[in-house]
Specification:
Distance between the termini: 36 Å
Largest sheet: 7 strands, mixed
Oligomer: single chain
Number of helices: 14
Helix content: 25-40%
Length: 517
């Protein structure tokens, strides 16, 4: 395989945000755009090469995964951190929840001095992204019997049933989630942004081409080193946009010598640019799952439904406020998102879960390098539940109690069966907190490791336009730049980051100014 020796813009990573950046730049300018994706590019949607599990939106897809995990950071267990290694990234294998979050999320970013990131400024981009991703709402007759019972149980305990979970000013409510699903197909960002531009002569997409590092000369990012067909290839660039995701983007920067000089020397990387915030501020929504054994009646209802309709296992989400949440402040701090359907790991078996997640986590972790080898996975230490005020643990504790209350409502009580985890024997706060500590996992929403912030902020990696502090020609545009996680599944917010920065990169006035700064 041959790759161009030069591109006006090289996009590193064709995931949720990277596909949008590359597609928008190619479609709206004459500049040459080279998209380098570490995983395979299966071509256009109608090309017939896409794996079935990545198309089928009824359950998560795992055909192509980076195999990231927690390593030795959790005593006695290993937590998988699933990330898709394929064109379209996590939009190609996720649960398709197209959630926006709360007004306080993005207004909070703007309050940090990040111009252009307020809620009102982003809403047109949210709408554009949702339109391109074919986001839709379920019709009432599409809601499965399990999820209908969950909604009825919520109403029975005075959780309001709402029309649109993406009302950014509505703090509490439950509904069937808006989803990026078209006729049962998970409509990913490769379909939405790359397919319309694939025939343009200024766009080149190269799959199976992981990027080792950026090249830097005279204070400017001027290219990349990528692995193509097992060879190390240097590609010069007018600018480089890193879209490797919250785990991958800091790893690329660190291998490039961009980070904490002492830490880089410790793994044999020569420091190029002192930027200690790279890899810090890692956070996600910590979650735990209540498990139930189900019943023959519930399984029969679901089988009857599936005989004539498409049946997703994830469908409803509740926005909730714990007792810790200040009553006089807008927003919420919990998600409860029931999962129910055939268990892919047990032939003929079913699974019934009530996951709950803390949407306002205060714990922070890191992404670091184990070595300079570009094929070695980074060290990922989320440090879940480590905040000294025990905020995250106690929010999850209340989420467990709300989940139990939901399960006890008449629409669910007689068909959901016994609670198998944590189980009825765990009833005290102390015992439940021990269980939370032992079982806490992620909600698939890591952010923050290349955080936006003002120059001079030791935690900041990029400015409000995604430009790497202190380096011209280098940008980051994915969930890693989020300084604080939104109260949302990051599917759509991550895409909005890509659209937002792509729009700025298309602004020649800004591009020219940055190149001369």
């Amino acid at each position: 395989m041959t790759v161009p020796r030069y591109a006006d813009t090289v996009v590193v990573g064709g995931g949720t945000a990277g596909a949008a950046v590359a597609g928008l730049l190619a479609a709206n300018s004459d500049q040459s755009v080279l998209l380098l994706e570490a995983g395979p590019d299966f071509g256009p949607r109608d090309g017939g090469r896409w794996p079935t599990d990545l198309l089928d939106a009824s359950a998560l897809g795992y055909t192509l995964d980076w195999r990231y995990d927690s390593g030795v950071t959790y005593p006695g267990r290993v937590v998988k951190f699933e990330r898709a290694r394929v064109i379209g990234g996590c939009s190609s294998h996720n649960g398709c929840a197209a959630i926006w979050g709360s007004r306080v999320d993005y207004d909070g970013w703007a309050a940090r001095g990040l111009d252009g990131w307020s809620t009102d400024g982003l809403l047109p981009i949210f709408r554009s992204a949702a339109d391109r991703l074919r986001v839709r709402f379920y019709d009432p007759d599409e809601v499965t019997p399990f999820h209908r019972r969950c909604l009825d149980a919520a109403a029975a305990m005075d959780i309001p049933l709402v029309d649109d979970l993406n009302d950014v000013d509505q703090d509490v409510g439950m509904a069937a989630s808006p989803v990026n699903i078209a006729d049962g197909v998970r409509w990913n960002t490769a379909f939405a942004y790359l397919d319309p531009a694939r025939d343009r002569p200024n766009l080149r997409i190269v799959g199976d081409a992981p990027v080792d590092r950026l090249t830097v000369a005279n204070g400017r990012v001027d290219g990349v080193i990528a692995l193509v067909d097992g060879r190390s290839e240097r590609i010069e660039a007018g600018r480089v946009v890193v879209c490797g995701g919250t785990y991958g983007s800091p790893a690329v920067l660190l291998r490039s010598g961009i980070g904490d000089p002492a830490a880089l020397r410790g793994i044999g990387v020569s420091p190029v640019h002192d930027l200690p915030g790279v890899g810090r501020n890692l956070h996600d929504h910590p979650s735990v799952r209540l498990w139930f054994e189900g019943s023959p009646e519930l399984e029969a209802e679901m089988r009857t439904f599936a005989a004539s309709r498409w049946m997703p296992e994830e469908q409803t989400i509740a926005k909730l406020r714990s007792a810790r949440y200040p009553a006089n402040e807008p927003g919420f701090d919990l998600h409860l998102y029931p999962v129910g359907g055939p268990d892919p790991e047990r032939d003929g078996g079913w699974r019934w879960w009530f996951p709950v997640a803390c949407m306002t986590p205060r714990s922070r972790g890191t992404v670091t390098l184990a070595s300079a080898d570009p094929l070695a996975p980074p060290r990922i230490d989320h440090r879940y539940l480590s905040d000294p005020e025990n905020h995250d643990r106690t929010v999850l504790l209340e989420g467990v109690r709300i989940g139990r209350e939901l399960a006890s409502q008449p629409p669910l009580r007689d068909v959901l069966g016994a609670e198998t985890q944590p189980g009825p024997d765990l009833a005290t706060n102390k015992s439940l907190l021990r269980w939370i500590d032992a079982t806490c996992e992620h909600y698939y929403h890591p952010v923050g490791t290349c955080a936006m912030g003002p120059a001079g902020d030791s935690a900041a990696v990029v400015d409000a336009r995604g430009k790497i502090h202190g380096l011209d020609g280098g940008y980051v545009a994915d969930c890693s730049i989020m300084p604080v996680i939104p109260r949302a599944n990051t599917n759509i917010p991550g895409l909005v980051v890509g659209e937002r920065i792509a729009g700025w990169l298309l602004d020649e006035a800004y591009v020219g100014a940055s190149a001369q700064s």
